[in-house]
User: What shape does this take?
Amino acid sequence: MEKGRNYTLHIWRQPSAKVKGKFKTYKVENISPGSSFLEMLDILNNELEQKGEDPVHFDHDCREGICGTCSLFINGRPHGPEKEITACQLHMRSFPDGMDITIEPWRASAFPVIKDLVVDRSAFDRIMQAGGYVSIRTGGVPDANAIPIPKENADLAMDAAQCIGCGACVAACKNASAMLFVSAKISQLSLLPQGDVERSKRAKAMIKQMDDEGFGACTNTGACEAECPKGISLSNIARMNREFMRSAVVD
Amino acid sequence: MKLDSKIPEGPLAEKWSKHKFSLKLVNPANKRKYDIIVVGTGLAGASAAASFGELGYNVKAFCYQDSPRRAHSIAAQGGINAAKNYQNDGDSIYRLFYDTIKGGDYRAREANVYRLAEVSNNIIDQCVAQGVPFAREYGGLLDNRSFGGAQVSRTFYARGQTGQQLLLGAYSALSRQIHNGKVQMFPRTEMLDLVMVDGEAKGIITRNLVTGEIERHSAHAVVLATGGYGNVFFLSTNAMGCNTTAAWRAHKKGALFGNPCFTQIHPTCIPVHGDQQSKLTLMSESLRNDGRVWVPKTVEMAEKVRKGEVLPNDIAEEDRDYYLERIYPSFGNLVPRDVASRNAKNVCDEGRGVGETGLAVYLDFRDAIKRDGEDTIRAKYGNLFQMYEKITADNPYKVPMMIYPAVHYTMGGLWVDYNLMTTIPGLYALGECNFSDHGANRLGASALMQGLADGYFVIPYTIGDYLATKPYDKVSTDHEAFEKAEKELRERINKLLSIKGNKTVDQFHKELGKIMWDKCGMSRSEKGLKEAKEEISKLREEYWQNVNVLGSNDEMNMSLEKALRVADFMELGELMVDDALDREESCGGHFREESQTEEGEAKRNDEEYTYVSAWEYKGEGKPEELHKEELIFENVKLTQRSYK
Assistant: This one.
C-alpha cells in the first residue's frame, strides 16, 4: 500500500441561501492515494460528525461520472485538475502530499447556493422543459429501423447527447453562459430526423428560457469545452447559433 | 392472506393481448379527474409519469435527486435487450422469454416474462422516436451486440452509456409533460411513508430535502418506482442515495416483500482498494465479450504476483488458468453473472486471487488486441478503458484489468400481481422496485428493458382497471390517516436527532454492510445466516441508542437523510437473512453452501422451492409471515442450468 497523504482543505461553508458564506480550513490525514476525492470528503465528514460539527454538504450520487450530480469547483477548476472527468472520478493520487485544496460551489447567479457546496440547478430542467424533446406520445411510433440514419449523424448526435447536465460549463464560463449545455441538446435533436419537425420551435423556446433564467451570453472563450467532463465540443454552440438563425428565416 | 397473481388464462402468447382487452378503461374525459403519485424518476418512474400525463391523468412525480435526470438508471452501461431479430440470427419473442426464464433459474413467472419479451420491441421503437442515439451501422440501421451470455445479438446500445441515453429519453418525455402542466415535479423530495385509507393506498408523506418540511400528498393511486436495495451492503454499484425506504415503508403498511434474498453480484467490478472506500464501480460486462478471465494456476505464483515480484504479463501461458473457459467450454467467459461471480470467489478463496488484497482476478485483453488491433478494441470499449484507468491508474491496453464481484442489482422487491399492483390496493411497484421478472438472477441488458416495459407499456393499461372503479373524490390531506402518518414520521425523526450517541450513521452502515456481504452475500450457509441474524438485530438495537445524527430537521441535513435510510436497511437486512435461511436450495444469485452438486455448482430443489417467497410484516418485534406463490411452468421444462 502506498503511504497516506495529508492535505489542508479550504472549503466554502454556507449554512443556507439566506446566510453569507465563508471559507473554513480543515486538515485531513492519512488519505490513501487510491481514494476518490469524494471519499476524502466522506472521511472528513465522518470526522466532523464524530466531533459534533456539521458535515460539509455536497451533491453527489452515482460516483461513476454519469449522473451529473457532483459539482465541486476545486482549486479554481470545475471538477478539478484532470481532463474529461467529474469530481467523483477524481482520485487523490492527482494531489501531491501536503497540498492545499480549495473547494467551492458552482458560482453563477442562475445556480443559487442551497447549502455549503450544494447549488440549485433547476434552471437546467426548466430549459429542457421548454423544448428539449420530440413531441411524441408513448406508442404508435414507427418501427425503429423504418428511418435509416447515417452513422456519422448518429455518432455526432451521440457526442452531443453525452452531456450529463452537471453545469461545469456554466461554472467555468466568465459569463456564466449555459450555451454548451443548451446547444448539446439542440444539436442532438437537430442532427436526427426525429427531431427535425420541431427544430425551429425548439431552438427558439430553449434559448428564450436560457435567457430568462439569467445565464450569460457566449464570448467564445472555450472554457466550457475545456472543462466539460464529457468533452462536449464547442462546435455544438455554432450549430445552435445556426439553428437559431435558421428558425428566424424559416418562420 | 391468499396471493392472487391474476395471471390471465389462455395460451402464453395471447395472455397479454386478452388481458388488455379485459381491463376496464377510464373514459378520456374522466382521466383528468384522477391523480396519480409516482415516486422515483428512473426508467420506470419517468416513463410511467410521462405516459400517465399523456393519457390525461394528473401526476405528481417525486425524486430525491436534484433533477429527475439523475436517477441511477443513468449508470447502466451495456445495453437493452429486444427481440427484434434485426440480425437474422434466430431471435424471437419466445427465445428472449426462454432465455430470461432460464437465466432467472426458473424462479420467475412465465406470464410476466413473456409479456416483457413481447413489449421489448415497442421499447426500441419508442426510444428511437424520442431521438435516442443508438449505435448504428454504416447502412443507417441499428446495430446490435451479444451480451451477458446470450447466444444471439439482441442488445441495442448507445456506446457504453445506454442507460443514460434511455433515461434522458424518458426524462425528455417527462419534461414535456411537466411543461404541459400534466406532471407536477418534486425534486429533492423523499417519500418517507405511505398513507392508507380503508386498506387502500391514498397518498404519501414526504420530506423536502432542502427545507426539511414534512408534506402530505393525496392521490387516487400510488406508483413506486424507487429502484433496488443493493445499498444494504454499504458497498455496491448503486448510487450513494439509492435506498429502500419507500418500498420498506410500504411493506410495513402491508405490501408483501417478494424474494428479498435474491441479490445479484456482478462479476466485473473494480476491486475494493481499502477501507476508505464508499462506493464500487461497475465495468460493463460487455467487456467479457473480448476479455479473458484468468488467475495464476498456482497459489505460489499468485503470492508472487500479490507481492509485486511477478507482473501479470510475464506469466507464461501454461501458468495461467483461464478458469471460466476451462470449466465452461461452451459459454466460456460469457457465463451468466452469478456463475462468473461465484467462480471468481472460488479461485480467490483458493488463494489464487491477485491484486494487493488477493480479492481480484484478471480480465485480459491481450489476445483480443493481438487479434483485432488496439483501434478496434478502443472503438468498442474506449470509454470503459478510460474509466478504469482513471480509477486505478493502470492502462488496460497494456496490463490486464483486475476485477472482482460486487453487489449490483436486487431481483427481489415488492410482490406484485400481473397488473404490477402490490398486495395493497392502489399501490403499484415498477422496475427494480418489484420482484417480478428476473427470478433468482437477472440477465445482462434486461433491467433497462423491464424498467421501460413496466413504465411505458404495462402500467398505463393496468392502472385504469383500478381507477375505473374508484370515485373521483380525493381523500383530504386533513384525513386522520395523514395526520397519524405524519405524526409517526416526526416522532421517528425526533428520535434519531435526539439520540446523540457516539457513532456516525456511516459507521453503522459499514458494519451492516460487512455482515450482509460476509454472511448473506455470494455464498450463504445456515450457520452464517443465523449469526448474521443475531448480529443485525444487535446492531439495530445499538443504532437506536448510539447513533449520532447532527443538525435539525428544518434544514438541508444529509446525515438525517442517511439515518432514516439506514434504519430501514437494517430491518430489510434481517428479512433478507430470513428469506435466505428459508430457501434451502441454491438458485441464481442465491447460493446455499448446503445445496451444491459434487462439482460445486448451484443445485436447485424444484420439488420444494418452486415458489416466490412473499413476506408479510406482522408488527414490531414479531417474525414476518411467509406466504408462498407457487410458480407454475406450463411452457418451459425445468432443467438444471448448464453452461458447460
Q: What stands out?
A: Residues 5-104 of chain A form a domain with the Ubiquitin-like (UB roll) fold (CATH 3.10.20.30).
